[in-house]
Batch of 3 targets.
Target 1
Amino acid sequence: MTSAFRTRIVRTLTLPLDADAFPGGLPSLLVRDDLLCWTRREAGLVGFGEVARFTATGPDRFLEADIWWRHLVLEAEIQDTVEWPGTGPVAFGSFAFSKASAHESRLIVPEIVVGLRDGKAWLTQLTFDDGDLTEAGARAALDRWLGTPGVVPSTDAGTDAAPVEATLTTGSLSEADWMAAVAAGVAEIRTGALEKLVLARDVVATVPAGVNAAEILRQLAVRYRECWTYGVDGLVGATPEMLIQVEGRTAQARVLAGTLDRRDADGMAGSPLEFAERVLAGSEKQRHEHDIAIQSLTTQLAPFSEAMNAHSEPFILELPNVWHLASDVKAELAEVEGHVPTSLALINALHPTAAVCGTPTTVAGALIRKLEHLDRGPYAGPVGWLDAAGNGEWGIALRGAVIESPTSVRLYAGCGVVEGSVPEAELAETWAKFRPMLESLGISS
């Protein structure tokens, strides 16, 4: 475990901005490869620079990060005239999927944060330095990071990514070997050892002209508006799945399980949405997989909740590449040992869910390590942000990739495997899930 925690006190200034000054919302600020971001539709948070960092590995990574953050903000000097979720001290975070992973989980405290929500915009400056924090100083710092003094940049993020020359290579397993792993997983399920297993695979895209992280994020933010676009330290993507969102005492989650490639509707009778409802909601396999995911989340969240409700029936989530069976869960948090649990404490209890691991999770986790031959790193781990007031949003890092060098990026995708799974169909599903990243890179799929 390492950290940049200092004996000096973090100081923050948050001031309102004119929301009308953001052409296209926060995606217009996605102009640097080293930025931090969490956006959905036109809203969210974008961070620039770094004043502190915490890293950890192992089974206690969430709790260690929680302790570090609470110590950091306990004595913070906070000037905040906006007082909304995401104002004041904020950290962006990304956590490894596995407690056995060598990948470092991290919290990053930026120097500058711009937020936009429900028509309200704000700017926060964070520092450990002495001296007065002023509105003029905060605005000047933002201008330095944007490189466009006095104006907010606009972009052409609505256009398609320009086609690029690139090569795709298989990662840890070939397609044939990965399908063999799926078949082995189905065989284990049929023994009764587990109900569901989620298996992931990776491919590597090599782009000789260079990987442009800012362009990837802009493309994802515009193409996948209903997803949460994230960027943390080279981890980029647009996830449709919310692990936990905390605002005050209210916690919400969006659970997905059950997937259908939109290309499968080509030539089918009826509307595309009717086709999705028939194939997904009408499939015993897909409903079973979804029920397992919902049960996993609600069981783990129940001890922290006074009340909880979920959709009695899943709905069809329509995305540009796929349809999902989806359910939203909402809970009122209870006090545990005298205080409302933090978002990181909830993540510690919830992760990994059946949606990204399987059930029982202990059995599924061991089988993943045996069959995947892959360290997932941050893929399928929690990614998002938290503030000093206990608010936060943490998605599951899906539909994403890790930029490994200036010219290479590793893409990840996974599938839920149940007794009725067919390896060839699961392989095709991974390609549908790779599509958002391939498109954002300008690679035809």
Target 2
Amino acid sequence: MRLISRIAGGCVMLFVDGLFFDVFWVMVTLVAYFAARFLYRRYPRWWLSPLLIAPLLVLGLALATHVGYGAYFHATHWLMLALGPATVAFALPIYEHRAVIRRHWPVLAIGVVVGSSIAMGSAWGLATVFGLSDALRLSLLPRSMSMPFALIVADDIGGIPDLTAVFVVVTAVIGVAMGEILLKWLPLTSSLARGSLFGMGAHGAGVAKATEIGGEEGSIAGLVMILSGVANVLAAPLVVFLLR
């Protein structure tokens, strides 16, 4: 009996601390995402966005099994690494609609600078008004960038990348919801305006939503997302220095 107990205990430890634990949580994350995406395609409501539903499903299971964030992140960290190549993949639709972008690049450049300034300034200002700590303010600053850029900036300026990841997801969900509302209220008839709206306000999720509207909208949203990410990576340390 003791031998059987030791073997069982060893199997449990292997599951908890070893490869099976990592594979299990990777599979949980992927299943939660694809299930949420299937639900969203059937019922396209902003509050059923995979960016909102999938984390809630994973969080519920993690709480039920008493798995901490550190253990979960260690098991699934390679999924975060896949965000970089996924962001680069947006270059393909951008290339396909390069003629539209070439015609409107001055407007796009101005929009990126103005939009990025407003996003960072409003995040810092609201965090200051509500008396948040410096760590939280610095973590909020890159909230309007796509995830790969936001994590780099948060780490460089002294923020908490894990918190920044949460703020980025929340910004994306709210940005898509607000974008849908604004499209109904505002007379935005050009693909340039619609694409820029989602690319600047909701980064990756916004690009996906803009692509649902049209190919040109999706390409412009992807370009705005990438340009704003690069601009923010370069400007964020200077902005923080000036705000301090």
Target 3
Amino acid sequence: MAATMTTANRVNFMPKHDAAENPKTGTAQAYASDSAKWQALRIRDVNADGHFYYSVKTTGVYCLPSCAARPARAENVAFHASPTAATQAGFRPCKRCRPDLPPRAEREAAMVAGACRSMESAETAPTLTDLAQQAGVSAHHFHRLFKRLTGVTPKAYALAQRQTRVQEQLRVGGPVTAAMFNAGFNSSGRFYESAPGMLGMTPRRWQAGGDGEVIWAAISDCTLGRVLVAGTARGVCAIALGDDDVQLMTELAARFPKAKVLAPEPSFSEWVAQVVHFVDNPARGFSLPLDIRGTAFQRRVWEALREIPAGQTASYSELAGRLGQPRAVRAVAGACAANALAVAIPCHRVIAADGKLTGYRWGIARKQQLLDNERGKGEV
């Protein structure tokens, strides 16, 4: 695919380790009795971690309820309310589950957040090996952990930071070479080679607001009414649904005010046909190159949208949680609303927390029809 989606904006990691405030985890009352504690030990209940600790007389250590160590005999086990109480009773922390440290989710989040801060402040992007050594884990483990918590690879996050720096430098004016070096590029060759992927055009043209860029556009029928398809030399840059051709072209011109919108060459009809087929059959996948434009945060949201399987949905709050920013629900909704590539970036798969269909720029009826088509209920 010609356009690679990346991320940039700071990631706010907020692990939910307070079980008393999380209905999906246990509460202190749930582990008040010894029988409840024994049950938690038997199933290695991670939700019990932090509510109590247990020590083993024969080993001299104390552990979390979820510790993977071999179960101890009942007569050798004692329960403690805190690490301090276990220590005062003469036991040392287990080196396997580390009950003396913050919860694992919190430690992992802090590890990844620290790596993000390093990439944001570094003049030259750190290597995966450097980041892993800083975190004190193997490169393979760090890579897997980083992607699980952020949704992207360390390389993608670092590239997004570089993209943001370039855009910010060009936006304030000044020489392109200054923007190049301030973004961490050591050679002009690598900078101009990377520019199309970061900016969608040359640095000079981006600095001028896209002045002189050529966009081809065509409108065709589809099962949802009329569909506008616009593209550049890099790929499809807009897919819009509607009923009025004039309105569709007006909205395209407003989105790309300095670009030259031209009638397409005959070969562009193949792209239009593929888009129409995809709109009518969204569960079959999309293979055309995309020219994706948006802020780093928007791109991150759009990438997460494309990971929602066809026919399935996610709420705005769920999507924000997947991004590691559970409080950014409104920002996620804004990114969905800013999407210019209907169906290709499936913002129709995002719904309200109560399951209702809301907030689709091309109409709720179309949103419902797209979901029905993906679930095999629509007429295609």
